[in-house]
Amino acid sequence: MLRKISLLLRYIRYTYRAVNAHSIHSPFVFDLYTRCIKSKTDESASGILRDLIVKMQSDKRTLSVTDYGTAEGETVSRKLSVQYIARNYSSSKFKAGLLCRLSSYFKPAAVLELGTSLGVGTTALALGFPQAKIITLEGCPETASIAKENFIFNGLKNVEIITGEFSSSLHGALEKLPSVDLVYIDGNHRSEPTLDYFNECLAKANENAVFIFDDIHWSADMETAWNKIKQHNSVTVTVDVFTIGLVFLKKGIARQQFTLKP
After folding, report:
1. CA 69 → CA 55, 114, 185, distances in Å?
2. To 10 degrees, what angle do helices 43-57 and 141-153 make?
3. Beta carbons within 10 angstroms of residue 3's beta carbon
4. How far apart are CA 181 and CA 135, in angstroms?
């Protein structure tokens, strides 16, 4: 209950700062906002994502879930149904649609995702730009197996899933890619690991890369990570839409931070 109240307070604080298109003076961010964030998801992709979410929220299979990314920094193993994971931890219809649009908008050749879960977010990224090469990392083998089923069911042939703790799998995943165009970090909801993943991925990120951070307001600790990322020397533009944060490394444009209504 206390966590929910804290999250509500952070959301109220966010709404006071959030603006719409009329307050955006950056041509780059204005175009991103009007043509991507506020646009509609492709109807075919939206239908696939909607059906996948419904399917997962109805799946009563029980998994032995290993979670390396708890707020307390502990590794936790527990029995959870696919249905429970889908309803409490997996990408919502709104977030999946936004990920799909971001992938379609930026057309990334190489995508790295940290935190596959049931594969809803991965599917959204793949549908947004089917030509992308996507490597996705998942710590829990049983959760990864469900994601693989979903990739096969939806005919996704551009996704490679690597199972294992990120501290050991991230380096190998980066070695497979000459550079990264889009990085989606949704695998550990603590400040220190989030910053570590960001810094490690920066070495392979090109100038036009976009970093997507999930649940930036999930806790005070995650907000600390988000604030440190915004101040990083390599970062020029950030966009906060509450559920996710976007980070850009573009050179030659003014350093700006935006809090936008989704």
Report:
1. 25, 11, 12
2. 140
3. 10
4. 12
Compute how many other C-beta atoms are within 10 angstroms of the C-beta atom of residue 76.
11
| CA–CA dist 91, 74 (Å, integer) | 23
Whole-angstrom distance, CA of residue 10 vs CA of residue 7: 5
Compute the distance between CA of residue 208 and CA of residue 230 in angstroms, rounded to an integer.
17
Can you tell me which residue has the tokens 């944060």?
245
Strand intervals (E) in 61-153: 62-67, 76-81, 110-114, 133-138
Report the top-level CATH class of 2-259. alpha beta
User: Using one digit for the tens of pLDDT, what is the confidence trace for 100-144?
Assistant: 999 999 999 999 999 999 999 999 999 999 999 999 999 999 999
Give phi and psi for 226, each to the nearest 5.
Answer: -60, -45
Listed in order, strand segments (DSSP E) in the chain are 62-67, 76-81, 110-114, 133-138, 159-163, 180-185, 205-214, 237-240, 244-248, 256-259
Radius of gyration of the chain (CA): 17
Task: Give me the residue label for tokens 């042939």.
Answer: 157
Domain ranges within the chain, ordered by starting residue: 2-259
> Which residues face 19 on adjacent strands?
260
- Predicted TM-score of the model (pTM): 0.94
Instruction: Give dist(CA 252, CA 262) in Å, integer.
Output: 27
